[in-house]
Write a structure and sequence with these properties.
CATH class of chain B: Alpha Beta
Shape of chain A: globular
CATH architecture of the largest domain in chain A: 3-Layer(aba) Sandwich
Number of helices of chain B: 7
Bound molecules: pyridoxal-5'-phosphate
Helix content of chain B: 55-70%
Distance between the termini of chain A: 35 Å
Strand content of chain A: 15-25%
Distance between the termini of chain B: 27 Å
Strand order of the largest sheet of chain B: 1-2
Radius of gyration of chain A: 22 Å
Helix content of chain A: 40-55%
Number of strands of chain A: 17
Structural class of chain B: mainly alpha
Oligomer: heterodimer
Structural class of chain A: alpha/beta
CATH architecture of chain B: Alpha-Beta Complex
Number of domains of chain B: 1
Chain lengths: 408, 145
Amino acid sequence: MSNTLDIQQIRAQFPVLHQEVNGKPLVYFDNAATTQKPQVVIDALDNYYKGYNSNIHRGAHALADKATQAFEETRKTAAKFLNAESPEQVIFTKGTTDGINLIASSYGRQNIQAGDEIIVSTLEHHSNIVPWQMLCQEKGATLKVIPINAKGELIMEEFEKLLTANTKIVAVNHASNALGTVNPIAEMIEKAHAVGAVVVVDGAQSASHFDIDVQALGVDFFVTSAHKIYGPTGIGLLYGKRVLLEEMPPYQGGGEMIKEVSFDGTTFNEIPYKFEAGTPNIADVIAFDAAMKWVQDLGKEAIRAHEAELLAYANEKLSEIPGIIFYGTAAEKVSVLSFGLEGVHPFDIGMMLDARGVAVRTGHHCTQPLMKHLGIEGTVRASFSVYNTKEEIDTLVQGVARVAKMMA
Amino acid sequence: MATINEVQDAIIEEFSLFAGDREAITEYIFEMGLKLAPLAEEHKVSQNVIKGCQSTVWLVADLVDGKIIFSADSNTGITKGLISMLLRIFSDRSPEEILNTELYFLEKIGMSGIISSQRSNGLTAMIKQIKLYALAFQAKAKANA
Ligand SMILES: Cc1ncc(COP(=O)(O)O)c(C=O)c1O
């Protein structure tokens, strides 16, 4: 391969990849759903539970101190990972879904009124649709949707037409989980800000591929999930501009998020703790630190170069199969390949591939409005990661070709 | 005509030839699905849809000369293959034959290891619906007698 990464050496760090499924070597192409975890992340979890499991921010003992330090170290790493102004502007959530719900419940309920408009796009995951729909319903606001062109790209002229003085929030993904389209968020943020709207970027599918610079983007809120960045499940990041976070009311009440509680009233803690009620997912936060450092050490540019090569190769090989249909042919894509075969249900292709040890996602990918727009029930989605190889793509292609042959 | 159990035994024998090769088994089920006669479009209506299946499954039953003729279809090929096995076993049988049968072929061929648990539930729902039709036709016959 034409980049500097030693893929075999990288693969060696992922224990789960080295197994047989249905009697065949596992080919894991469901990375957009969740990536596998390198040994350093597994070790971090193991070390925490074996060595210093303890509740944070409260205990006056050595273990609690060590756990607190490790926990807060992740916040610093995350701030660097997103290039946030300060670590306090990074809030730990359960994941992207939780982050969007936090923003919709806290910022949204405080700021949205009847007659306001919230803009999402046709490409959104249900996580970036439903919380806004609920908010609109509660407040009498309207949800507007940016349409897409035949390649699966947002139509920017239409987006501009939707932006008005009533637009209060624009919520878009950085990259589409179903089609792989990378959206021009820098440009969108600029345009949205011009009408005074706040922008929420769903970075679930981008943070593992691109260097994120929230300051350069000027984004108001950015959310992502650790489990899609080689980190543990159940953990996510929410970045927000300081002024916004400080003005926002707490999302949940409980321990950790208070300054002082009395039955007459409660004063709330500072950011980020105001938004982190209860004992957090300490172990996974700490292990996520290892994941981010692991990714930064490889370098996102090198990761992306490898993934782009895999995507191009898969595109080329699959396009030779009679009856193949590609969904999403945007000029800019992350390593997500959605496809189908003429006359075959995506489930059948998925099952046939599974029998060959190839794990792909089939179905609507939590983007039912997009599937409806495309006029399909679902797609087969192969999504590639830094540890995947061209040989694995050959196995995928052979499987799809076999189904096509059976249909002929 | 072979009895229900003879058909079950024949299916078990066919599957045993694959010696657990998942790829071959999956392809075999898919191929059976490709051969399943399609259901006429007018029968693909919501009242014929079996609830509890991950794929959409339509099932229609007619009583002809005391035998139930089942026809069914699905939007996915693998499910069509599963349907085709069930029809091979249950179609063109009397309600009594259907109700008195114990299904053992699924366990013998290790179906739960071949299809997902969601799909297994769907298969169970199909079998239940087939038995419900048999019960209904039996009750009707008794009422008319
Ligand atoms: C674009 C996008 N948004 C949101 C989500 C939801 O992420 P999570 O389930 O980690 O909360 C996903 C995950 O599939 C996604 O791909």
